[in-house]
């Protein structure tokens, strides 16, 4: 009898945790009427990346913006219904801060002076070109058809592309030339750099406007 009561208590606790997790989530409302619950990851070149969440599974999905009627952003457990991935405020990310940062190609990581919290939406507008080797010059999007290089911060992403990370020991994420808001995975000080493994022969810089 005690074991049965314990099993029921465990089941109730599991369901309660799952319910809280689902309540604290974003929602995609599709044009066909479906609603998908999870976490907005990024908006890249007209494509929405979304981590779908369920009680027993989780998967990353990519949808065209044309398929999505609206995105309901949940911040700190409060649902906010609006027609797009941005938020009202001082910049495209919906925050109230904006900062200009110069990202030198020969510096591993450039500090932005911005402290980020996990789940925060941040937008980047980048410009400029960097020379990152003999005859190699690219903008923030990085080298087209770039080959895999295990020594780069992100081996399977374009060489010389603009990168970000939160905290000195954190993993890097791709920014490139996208301008849509990106959901930060981790809390910490925001750093920017380029996706290159050898920096000594690099020249030039990217100018980046950060809205947060």
Which features does this protein show?
globular; six-stranded antiparallel β-sheet; 212 residues; 45% strand; 10% helix; 1 helix; Jelly Rolls; 16 strands; disordered N terminus; SH3 type barrels; mainly beta
Task: Write a structural description.
The protein is mainly β and 212 residues long. It folds into 2 domains: 2-82, Roll (SH3 type barrels), CATH 2.30.30.100; 98-211, Galactose-binding lectin (Jelly Rolls), CATH 2.60.120.430. The protein is 10% helix and 45% strand. The protein contains 1 helix and 16 strands. The protein has one helix at 2-23; strands at 26-30, 35-44, 47-53, 58-64, 68-75, 78-82, 98-104, 110-116, 121-127, 130-133, 136-138, 162-166, 173-174, 182-183, 188-194, 203-211. The strands form 3 sheets. Strands 4-3-2-1-5-6 form a 6-stranded antiparallel sheet, with no helix packed on it. The model is unreliable at 2-23 and 75-91 (pLDDT under 50).
How do the helices and strands line up, and which of them pair or pack?
Layout: H1 2-23, E1 26-30, E2 35-44, E3 47-53, E4 58-64, E5 68-75, E6 78-82, E7 98-104, E8 110-116, E9 121-127, E10 130-133, E11 136-138, E12 162-166, E13 173-174, E14 182-183, E15 188-194, E16 203-211
Antiparallel strand pairs: 1-2, 1-5, 2-3, 3-4, 5-6, 7-16, 8-15, 9-14, 9-16, 10-11, 10-16, 12-13, 12-15
Number of helices: 1
Mean pLDDT: 80
Radius of gyration: 20 Å
How many DSSP-defined strands? 16
CATH topology of the largest domain: Jelly Rolls
Q: Please tell me the total number of domains.
A: 2
**Share of helix, binned:** 10-25%
Main β-sheet description = 6 strands, antiparallel
Topology order in helix (H) and strand (E) letters:
HEEEEEEEEEEEEEEEE
CATH C-level class of the largest domain is: Mainly Beta
| Percentage of β-strand residues | 35-45%
Low-confidence stretches: 2-23, 75-91
What's the overall geometry?
globular
Class of secondary structure makeup: mainly beta
Q: Judging by the overall fold, what is the CATH architecture of the largest domain? A: Sandwich
